[in-house]
């Protein structure tokens, strides 16, 4: 365990569950056992932080997580889930949280995120509900997702407890959080920055989001140099950053092993910089929109 792990009680590599159980709706043909097995496997390998949302497969993903953890000792996993932007009124936050607890079948949630902002619901109402959930012990920590610095500051002013984590899209292509200083701000503020979609390099018009050999020469060269896969280089570029964790999804045990193996090598500082500066596609994809609050 490194210092970051000790501080945040969760690892730098977290398992996501978007597309476990379905996508927006449950998929009746989903291989539930495979998803449950993958979650159990990840926890058995030390990936304690499991990420879900009330909206993933309309709650089915939370049910699968609940099923996976039911025979595992509580100190072996850390559960994060999210309340959607259409449920941010006081009563809806409380009721969403209670429903998530039922689906996960646990007495408390370790990390409860606001999934996205909703300009139609006063933030004071949402934060009052979050403060209440902390006071009653139903949630242990609060997180924000898809936010910029102004939004983080506004929540900090209204919450009675510190913001624990910020979860934004961030990878070699999607650089908004880096360019707008969100990653640095989180590091300086002691907020865990968790990069969502760390593996898939998707953007409008992308030819191959899985970047098989031949998609990006730079990645192919780095993978060859370190004797690792392109995916491992992509994930390592993130995890090697101070204060940055990743949440990746996989229902495949070999893929989980492949991601865990990134702990066994290090990119040289100069290679990290080359990937940082020279990666050929770098875009803002709208994940840090501070649309509701002015910076003060
Ligand atoms: N806060 C938000 O708004 C937000 C938005 C989107 C996602 N998220 C969270 O972030 C998590 C990750 O994002 P994501 O699922 O969209 O993208 P991702 O983790 O970057 O990519 C997932 C895809 O990569 C594949 N994969 C995983 N490991 C691989 C490996 N070693 N080699 C090759 N392919 C591999 C997976 O397939 P297999 O299953 O076959 O391995 C899956 O198709 C989500 O599950 C969710 O928890 C949050």
SSE arrangement:
Elements: H1 3-8, E1 13-16, H2 32-44, E2 49-51, H3 60-69, E3 78-83, H4 90-104, E4 109-114, H5 123-135, E5 139-145, H6 149-158, E6 163-169, H7 176-179, H8 182-189, E7 192-196, H9 217-226, H10 230-239, E8 244-249, H11 253-260, H12 269-278
Parallel strand pairs: 1-2, 1-8, 2-3, 3-4, 4-5, 5-6, 6-7, 7-8
Helix pairs in contact: 2-3, 4-5, 9-10
The structure holds NADP nicotinamide-adenine-dinucleotide phosphate (NAP).
What's the helical proportion of residues? Answer: 25-40%
Report the count of strand segments: 8
The N- to C-terminal Cα distance equals: 37 Å
Instruction: Extract low-pLDDT stretches.
Output: 1-10
CATH fold title: TIM Barrel
What does this entry show, briefly?
This protein has 296 residues and is an alpha/beta fold. It has one domain: NADP-dependent oxidoreductase domain (TIM Barrel). Helix content is 40%, strand content 15%.
Describe the protein's architecture and organization.
It is a single chain. 46% of the residues are buried. The protein has helices at residues 3-8, 32-44, 60-69, 90-104, 123-135, 149-158, 176-179, 182-189, 217-226, 230-239, 253-260, 269-278; strands at residues 13-16, 49-51, 78-83, 109-114, 139-145, 163-169, 192-196, 244-249. The chain has an eight-stranded parallel barrel with strand order 1-2-3-4-5-6-7-8, surrounded by six helices. It is built from twelve helices and eight strands. It has a single domain, classed as TIM Barrel. The structure holds NADP nicotinamide-adenine-dinucleotide phosphate. NADP nicotinamide-adenine-dinucleotide phosphate (NAP) binds next to strand 8 and helix 11.
């Amino acid at each position: 365990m490194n210092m970051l792990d000790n501080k945040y009680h969760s690892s730098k590599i977290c398992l996501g569950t978007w597309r476990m159980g379905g996508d927006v709706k449950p998929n009746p043909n989903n291989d539930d056992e495979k998803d449950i097995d993958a979650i159990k496997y990840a926890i058995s390998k030390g990936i304690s932080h499991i990420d879900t949302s009330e909206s993933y497969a309309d709650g089915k993903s939370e049910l699968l997580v609940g099923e996976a953890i039911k025979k595992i000792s509580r100190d072996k996993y850390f559960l994060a889930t999210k309340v959607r932007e259409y449920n941010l009124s006081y009563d809806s936050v409380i009721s969403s949280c209670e429903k998530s607890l039922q689906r996960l079948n646990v007495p408390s949630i370790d990390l409860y995120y606001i999934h996205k902002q909703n300009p139609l619901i006063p933030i004071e109402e949402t934060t009052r509900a979050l403060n209440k959930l902390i006071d009653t012990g139903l949630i242990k920590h609060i997180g924000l997702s898809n936010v910029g610095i102004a939004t983080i500051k506004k929540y900090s002013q209204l919450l009675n407890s510190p913001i624990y984590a910020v979860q934004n899209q961030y990878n070699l292509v999607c650089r908004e959080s880096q360019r707008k200083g969100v990653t640095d701000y989180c590091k300086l503020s002691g907020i865990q920055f968790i990069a969502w979609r760390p593996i898939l390099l998707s953007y409008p018009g992308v030819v191959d989001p899985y970047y098989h050999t031949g998609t990006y020469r730079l990645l192919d060269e780095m993978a060859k140099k370190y004797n690792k896969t392109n995916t491992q280089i992509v994930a390592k570029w993130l995890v090697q950053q101070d204060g940055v964790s990743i949440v990746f999804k996989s229902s495949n045990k070999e893929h989980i092993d492949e991601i865990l193996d990134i702990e066994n090598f290090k990119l040289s500082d100069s290679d990290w910089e080359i990937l940082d500066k020279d990666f050929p596609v770098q875009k803002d994809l709208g994940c840090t929109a501070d649309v509701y609050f002015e910076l003060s």
